[in-house]
Amino acid sequence: MHTSSSSPSLLANSDADDEQLRSYFDDTTKGCDVFRILPIGKVGSGKSTLVSEVFDFELDESSVQHYTCSDHDINREILSQNNKSLSLHDSKGLESGSAENLKTITDFIQDRKGRPFSEQLHAIWYCVEIPIAGQRPFEGGDIAFFNSLIESNNKVPVIVVFTKIDRLQFREQKRLKKIYIDRGMEAKPALAQAKTDCATEAAAAYQKSCVDVLQSDLIPAAWMKHCAVSNKHPDSIVQLIEVTKSTLVKSDALNILWASAQMADVDLKIEMSIKAGKNMYWQGLGAAMIPLKGLCRVTLLTVLSRIHSDIVRVWNINDPDKILVGANMRVMIRMLFVEPIMSPTLDGNPDPDSEASHIIKNLAQVAINPAGAVTSAVSELLKSIDNMAATTPATARVLMAYISDLTLGMESLYWLARARKDKAINRQEVVHAFTTYRASTQRRDVHMQIRDYIGDENIMRSFSRDKALTKVAAIVDQARFNPTEVFEPPQVQHGFAV
Ligand SMILES: Nc1nc2c(ncn2[C@@H]2O[C@H](COP(=O)(O)OP(=O)(O)O)[C@@H](O)[C@H]2O)c(=O)[nH]1
Ligand SMILES: [Mg+2]
């Protein structure tokens, strides 16, 4: 960013100064907005299903048209409105096994190596349907492909994804049932027993027919990890996400992009959401005291807004109207969560009704009506946050509360959006999700614990910033949502002002 030549005073508090402060994620990902993945595998092996399960990624009508037109090009990135943190490339399948197609794919992988970070390929999912009738999982084309990866010294992590494990379980269930009946069991208990036992049998069969083969000398060791998935088993999807993540250990940037792109592992969202606060938290505690990078000072408000955009980015909720990153949203968060924790007169457990009704009344003005003027109460609040002495317990509390409240509020919104097909959210749902969290006992516990942790000036003296973030993670962990009991579907209000 260009630095203004007019030397900023340390005491000045201009927007220009604040603009110097980049968010931790922006700083780390350096302009790369997407995780770029290449699924490979035969037609019908389950690639599209997997992409939908992991990323909520449905091809747009427009991309589908491109996709089916004859000038198919592996270089064309496929994007989705539903998930703007993912870029997909279509390998057109290896089914032809033709040398030409293999070369197209390996050339693509090779070419991406030399590109800027944002255009590089970050992972390859090599999808193989688990055989259920004694076929071989790998054929000549697969082996040729793995060999070419080795020859080209490929460094992009290759994860072998064995798909449709449920079909193998079903096969084993049928086989066991027959055995049990042959042994004289009645049909019904035989079925029940077979259902119980089939997972273990299928695991053994999978090990033998897939994993052992993969790990044998038959298959060139061009892959890094493997796992088995099924769209019938959400746990297996989360496991694929974890396995993919485990191949990205060396890069903070890729970990951020991955946590953001994947939409099925909520624990990973939470973990990264808190991490988003970690770096900026330092800046926040030093705000108004420490000239940033020797240039200027930043305000706590700026720090909060950077934490805000990082956390929203991790959750990657489909937000076509950009509600979550609007100024009104940040004001709403401050009102709902920061104000109560700032006030020295409130104890950790304010009367939820009076306080909530006051807040929700104001909320109607600031959050729901974007054009509405910020109320004087809000601007007073903003001023007091800004004037807060930097290393007071209040600052530490505000930062901790902002990170934990926004994280849990986003979790609440995540579950709300999850039930919906397009998973796009509107203003009403945002308010619903956040006020639900605001009114919850979890929220009260969170605030109480933060107050307990940072009680007074004495504690502040020996206060460790890193410990505070570990504490935030622990507090958030205890306050996690149980999605099944969180929400009644919101009342549909027609004519809602958006
Ligand atoms: N039983 C079962 N069927 C699956 C699974 N994943 C995909 N399928 C089905 O397999 C077929 C091909 O899947 P698709 O994702 O289109 O494969 P692609 O051609 O590789 O993209 C579809 O009918 C899917 O419904 C799975 O985990 N279990
Ligand atoms: Mg497909």
UniProtKB/TrEMBL annotation:
InterPro entries: P-loop_NTPase. This is G domain-containing protein. It comes from Piloderma croceum (strain F 1598).
